[in-house]
Amino acid sequence: MLELFSARMRVSTWRQLWLYLAEAEKELGLDISETAITEMKDRVRITDKEFEHAAVEEQKRRHDVMAHVHAYGAVAPAAAGIIHWGATSCYVTDNADLIFLRKGLQMLLPKLAVVIQQLSNFAQTYKYLPCLDQGYTHGQPAQLTTMGKRACLWIQDLLMDLKNLEFAESNIRFRGVKGTTGTQASFLAIFNDDHAKVEELDEIVTRKAGFDSAYIITSQTYSRKVDVDIAHALSSFGATCQRIGGDIRHLAMFKELEEPFEKDQIGSSAMVFPSFFSDFDLALEAMAKVFTGIQAKPVSAHLCYVLPSLDSLRNESRMRSERLCSLGRHLADQSKQASDTFAAQWLERSLDDSAIRRMYIPEMYLDADALTILLNNISSGLVVYPAVIQRRINDELPFMATENIIFAMVAKGSSRQEAHEHVRVLSHQAADVVKQHGGTNDLIQRIQNDFFFSPIHGELERLMDPKTFIGRAPQQVEKFTGAGGEVSRALEKYAASLTNGHRAELHV
Is 84 a catalytic residue? Predict the structure, then answer.
């Protein structure tokens, strides 16, 4: 993903687009020599020395695209006079962006599919394991579910993201060859008012770029509404990651579930700060160089501002999940940048979209890529502690079982109201032991010792079996993630990626 949004890829793609245009114009009868085409082909990938030449040109011309037109012409002299013939800057900048937007989504989708598959395997493994925390509503124990069912809640959200991103990818079209304000006037002039040739030129270049169709209507740019729709899909994925990370952090807090822990990982306050900051500095500097050409000030220079937030990185059981939440929150916030930029466009185009798009588009994709890597790493080795889960169930299950106990008593001929009152009194006594004296929940022992409940004393073990409290959770997991289920159908097109998928390694 870094390579996709690198300066070299950006300018090399511009050159490829200039080559497509020249080839199509030659094919349609314009006077372009074969030598010019050959020289352009030979120098499509820009070199470091050519970057230096372009930088000098940009100092003089204050225009990055025209600087690179001159730099390309310098190494393809036979083509110098026809490079960019009839085009405007957005021919290369916008068409290149559409290529990157689509390619970036094509890179993300298989990675997300692998994560969904790994979580599906986890759900299948733990579809019968009853657990308490998973049954929390508004922070209070509500009803048991299973560990696998909780994972299915995550999977369902990720499936929505998968479909949103697939839709966004399938909806991206090429800007094509449209001229200065989208009217194709310059190309109509070049082809002597031959409308058919102008349309054919647009179609040829679109096919060469690998697109089935181009937008019929554009201004100087493709509509920034395209960016908005993609940003919404990516931001929604960011929110999902934050949600999943939050659940894992809560479960780790209760010691029921932990993310994978590396053999030599340090997760305490002994964590070496420089390892964190050097990585972050490199990422920040790379982003600055790639997208803006500005040298970023190392973030470690602002250590005093970020040190307080490092406490969240110190728990070894949820460091990656905290990072998942952090990056997810950042990605979730990015859609506003796209919406604001789209809304601020004037008539055929306003240049205040240029600088900000060079930042937020790569940031969104790099965020999303990092999140898929984190999700892959976390989901590939989640650690479950059944004994801890059972202990916590034992603390709460007696209160949850009271309804079953009342039903059993009614089935034996007792009055519901009378059974309810006996249970209420004993429940308050047991709660007092737990809350006032720090003792264990002894409600079942109290029921066992109460003669009123003697008709069901022999059934208490059955009535307290956690598996009787999980409803159809295992069956739902199987229907959702099993063979032929919703998950497997959604992942069919990613079969190759799932076969070749592997655990993502993290180095910080």
Answer: no
Alpha-carbon dihedral angle through residues 321, 326, 328, 332, given to the nearest 10 degrees: 160
Res 294: pLDDT:
40
- State the Cα angle at 404 between 401 and 407, rounded to 5°: 150
User: Could you say which of 12, 223, 268, 488 is catalytic?
Assistant: 268
Strand runs labelled E in 112-159: 130-131, 136-137, 140-141, 145-146
Per the CB < 8 A criterion, the answer to whether 5 and 291 are in contact is yes
| Helix/strand/coil for 29 | coil
pLDDT of residue 434: 87
Residue entry with tokens 């180095």:
507
354: CB partners within 8 A, 6+ apart: none
**Active site includes 268?**
yes
Catalytic residue, candidates 138, 437, 502, 507: 138
For position 186, what pLDDT does the model report? 94
Rounded CA Rg of the chain: 31
In this prediction, residue 338 carries a pLDDT of 86
- CA-nearest of 134, 148, 156, 153 to 251 is 134
Counting as low any pLDDT under 70, the low residues of the chain are 133-142, 261-318, 501-508
- 138: region left, alpha or beta (phi > 0 left; psi from -120 to 50 alpha): left
